[in-house]
Amino acid sequence: MCQLLTIIILSILLGKRKGTMEARLPTKILWMRRMRVLRRLLRKYRESKKIDKHMYHDMYMKVKGNVFKNKRVLMESIHKSKAEKAREKTLSDQFEAKRAKNKASRERKIARREERLAQVSPSVLEYFLVFFIKIENLMHYQHVH
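The structure corresponding to this sequence follows.
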C-alpha cells in the first residue's frame, strides 16, 4: 500500500514528460509560425493600403530580424510609425507655409520700397547725392591732414 502511495505521489509531482522542450515542440516550428503570422499581417496591410511599399519593406526586414515578439507588437509599431510620419508631414507643411508667407511679405516690402523710390523726385535725389559727396570730401580731407 505504501509503495503504491509513493508511486501515485511521484507521478503527480514529477509529471510524465519525456524529452526536452526542443524535442516536444521545436523552436524552429515556433519561429516559422510566428514569421508566417507576421508576414501575413504585413501583406494584408499592404494590400489594403494601410501601409505603403516602403514601410512594408522596413517592417518585413524588422520581422525577419526578430524585432517583434508577436502580432500585437507589430501592429502597435505600424500605428506608431504611421502617426510619426503624419506628424512629420504636418510639421513640414506648416514650415513650407511659413516660408511662403515670409517670402511673399519680403516681396511686398521690396515692391513698396521701389514704389516709394520711384515717387521721390530727381531733384531730392540730386540734393542727397551732392550732400554725401561733400561729407565724403570732408572726411577725406581730415584723414590727409
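The mean pLDDT is 88.
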